[in-house]
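Justification of computing resources. Each target in the renewal requires a structure prediction run like the one illustrated here; the chain below, 312 residues long, is used simply to show the kind of job we budget for.
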Amino acid sequence: MHKDKILITGSKGLIGNALKKSLEQLGMQVIGIDINYPIHHEEHGDIRDHRSFKTLTAECVGIVHLAAVSRVIAGEKTPELCWEMNVDGTHNILKSINTLPNKPWIIYASSREVYGQQTKLPVSEDADLLPLNIYARSKVAAEKLVAEYRENGLQTATVRFSGVYGSTDDHIDRVIPAFCRVAAFGGTMQIEGRSHTFDFTHIDDVVDGLIKVIHKLQDGCIDLPTVHFTSGQAITLWDLSELAKRFSLIQVKYIEVPPRTFDISSFVGNTELANLVLNWRAKVPLQDGIEKLIFQYRQTPSIKGQHKIAHG
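Resulting structure tokens:
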């Protein structure tokens, strides 16, 4: 077993791709699987495949589990697949590694969506979990599975993400990529709930947080509390659109449409626990991240496409 060999599930996604590059730069051996790679790609894999996953992890010291039906809207459209991937797939991973002699640690990637609509902001990690949609319910169920295996001796950590952004490789209809693409190329921003308020976390900060968690697990820590990686800085979708327009060099329009019924309307996370246990705080100011992403889009005209936003 290679002492630094780490498996990333969901390695083709925004976070997985960025984390893999950073870990390799640190000299760690990283392998990845993602069902979205072509079938003949070396990293193509399905977390639901018990036999192949067990073989893959037999020489790993740890797993960063990012693979999922990862969006609220996708869960609403394909609820059965969402549950199968997010809950059954996670359970398959846990069962697979629990029978291995090397017992790799696992980091489970959850979401702010598990909190649902909280009345008190900012939200702390010990807030009640009040999931509003199938995606959120699947994340709560998977978190419970991870906790059960932890109680039985598996070394685990759970992290919750909030509005991660910062790459042109992201889903083009998520709110920040959609706004930034319009700012880069022109078009119309579609705002679903102008007063809806969230905080957003740059991908560089998220990767930094995950690496800190990995180091804790590598050092033998067995009692890391669940933390969320969040900036703690609130912004409305209207102000977010205005921020993106500020860095645009061309005319930008917008339309307002009613918000979706299965979305939360506000979330701002308390940053104290992550700072306490990991010495982590978000460092990239939102305006810097937005300006940088708009510039990246301008340098990538091949993804100009359409410019509407579906928040989620």
